[in-house]
Amino acid sequence: MYNKIYQILDEKGRAKTGIFLDGPYMGKKCILKPETVIREENCGEAAEKKSGVQLIPEKTEDASIWDNYLNILSETKETKVTEADGHRLFVEDYRKNPRLVIFGGGHVSQPTAHLGKMLGFHVTIMDDREYFVTKERFPEADQLVYGDFKELDKYITPYDNTYYVILTRGHIGDADCLRRLLHRPYEYLGMIGSKNKVRITRENLLKEGYTLEQLDEVHAPIGIPLGGQLPEEIAVSIMAEIIKVKNQHYSAYCDEKVEAAVLEGRHGVMVTIAEKSGSSPRGVGSKMFVEPSGHITGSIGGGKVEYEAINHCKEVKEKEVKHYVLTADGQDSLGMICGGQVTVVFERV
Fold it and tell me: Does the pLDDT value for residue 221 go beyond 60?
């Protein structure tokens, strides 16, 4: 199943999984794959959610079970354990390879692209002026696109984990971009402009059939108000708002070395921290891949918990959940004095 998870992440930049930690469905697992839905302009369905999901159970016969928990999975926006019918359901929200797409190649776009690249985004610049999208102006950009904003769907592939920034040279270009982007999935959509320009653009789009629900999701005027006037200062305010949105929910850390081990076809046990409290070593979602040879990729924090988990991998048949107590006495105690508790999921891959 991890092969499928990592394939979806490469394709969409987002994926979500759920696994029961106890109860009658203990060990059952599924994936929620984002399904991109791009609607035609003024199709009358504008108020519907921007992206659907495809529910993929680990075993096809479990599809009817997971249908009952689709709402819980969809509404859980971060990596954590939640309750489902009185039982614990561990939801992992994966994010990878975020894309920053900037429309307009002007003076604010240059420092915004630089900051975006520095912060780990794949950066695309699009402008309808060919001489504004050059390597001289944007040496760090991953993709430069010259074309009409009205035809952006021809050039910019839909991708769920995308952050769109509209910085064209005028309100016409801004509105052209906004019309098309409102019909596709995104993590962030922001548009530069004065309050008056934003108000007029909103009024015009409402007359065209777009909804308040759609328009209220647009960050406009763009950026966190820092009082800056210089292009570099405006770029900082834009990227600060994007980072705030990006990190508003806790996502599972995607360890690329662990991912590579799985995609290379290696066999072993995936070890994941599902819950933690107190002075436990690493965060929820941390992973370690333990092969029969003893080769280990990733880490759940080292120390006694990791040592015990590695030893336990030899006994794992399919899936197991173990609870470790980081104290000197009591049931499940590891004879430690640092305090804290850790719930660990073991999955044979």
Answer: yes
Nearest-angstrom CA–CA distance, 344 and 290: 14
What pTM was computed for the model? 0.85
Triad 279, 89, 286: Cα angle to 5°:
40
Identity of the amino acid at 55: L
Q: What is the mean pLDDT of the chain?
A: 90
- The model's pLDDT over 273-286, given as tens digits with 9 standing for 90+, comes to 999 887 656 789 99
Task: Give residue 226's pLDDT.
Answer: 94
List, for residues 103-128, the tens digit of each pLDDT value.
999 999 999 999 999 999 999 999 99
**Interior angle at CA 154, CA 207 and CA 246, nearest 5:** 75
Q: pLDDT tens-digit profile of 125-160? A: 999 999 999 999 999 999 999 999 999 999 999 999
* pLDDT score for 337: 46
Distance from the first to the final alpha carbon of the chain: 8
β-bridge partners, 53: 34
